[in-house]
Amino acid sequence: MKRKPWEVEDGLWERIEPLLPVVERRHRYPGRKRLDQRRAMCGIPFVLYTGIRWEFLPQELGFGSGMTCWRRLRDWKEAGVWQRLHELLLAELRAGDALDLSRASVDGSHLRAVKGGDATGPSPVDRGKTGSKHHVIVDAHGVPLAATVTGGNRNDVTQLLPLIHAVPPIRGKRGRPRQRPEPLYADRGYDHNIYRRQVRELGIRPLIARRGTEHGSGLGKNRWVVEAAFVLLRWFRRLRIRWEIRADIHQAFLTLGCAIICWRRLKNSADLIPQSEPPTSASPSGVRR
User: What Pfam families does the entry give (predicted)?
Assistant: First the structure.
């Protein structure tokens, strides 16, 4: 049977399991045994992919209750699991020459926040309804390097520097970790001389379209990858509309979505590497499953 996308693969689980905090069971009054970590790890992506409400998580799947998965998502966010997983996958992509930091692109995207909460505001593109904004920075191939959540009324240019600083030091090769791209592409929403100067002070060359000029600057041929990254993030139904009142829970979903995109890219790049040995008789087709 074809594997469901929310079922954690062995390769991904090998990377996640060492990052999870160990919870010792009490010897006296131990209570009910905790749900298996891997089962809970499958329940969280199930909600991320389907957008289902936590309380409607089907029990027959064996992923535990929705509230249990919500608590694991919260606890692992506080323990830094999702961020470290994203950094680990970025390092592996760089080690396999599947990460291109020769240039980067940034952009923001609105989404409705149905229940309100922190990091929300009146959206200027949705008739003033309460909304939030995703801010994403990607490499030359569209791999998400960092993503943040703000209120829907926050201007894109005000989040430019926080987004650049959110990019972690990416290891994977000998020498110092890489954190800064060379040029940075952005649309007219980021056109401001003060921020251009601040970006240059970080050693990054800003390539930002000018306001009031005609379209056709040629920057779009490099900047389209960030739009493609938003398409991939919107494939997760939970990231199309914000249902979480707490911004940290929604940020956990957003970081996990970026990590899953990196994992897919890592698998695809590994499949493109030619095999050093011919396929064995146990695998006549030579296709990895």
Answer: DDE_Tnp_1, DUF4096
Looking up tokens 């010792």 gives 24
Map residue 5 onto helix, strand or coil: coil
Report how far residue 141's alpha carbon sits from residue 90's, in angstroms, rounded to the nearest whole number: 13
* Inter-residue contact 13 to 40 (CB < 8 Å): no
From CA 77, how far away is CA 249, in angstroms rounded?
Answer: 8
Residue 272, pLDDT > 60, answer: no
Q: Are the C-beta atoms of 191 and 209 separated by less than 8 Å?
A: yes
CB 73 within 8 A of CB 252: yes
The residues near 6 (Cβ < 8 Å, ≥ 6 apart) are 42, 43, 45, 46, 48, 49, 50
| Amino acid letter, residue 226 | V
Burial of 104 from C-beta contacts in 10 A (0-12 / 13-18 / 19+):
buried
Give ∠ CA 131-72-11 in degrees, rounded to 5. 100
- Burial bucket for residue 137 (CB in 10 Å: 0-12, 13-18, 19+): buried
State the Cα–Cα distance between residues 197 and 100, nearest whole angstrom. 24
Measured distance CA(99)–CA(235) in Å, rounded: 22
Cα-based distances in Å from 33 to 30, 36, 59? 8, 9, 17
CB atoms within 10 A of CB 19: 15
Q: Which residues pair with 110 in a beta bridge?
A: 133
Residue 277 DSSP symbol: S
In this predicted structure, the answer to whether residue 95 has a pLDDT above a threshold of 50 is: yes
Give residue-wise pLDDT tens across range 72-85.
999 999 999 999 99
Distance CA(280)–CA(274), nearest Å, equals 15
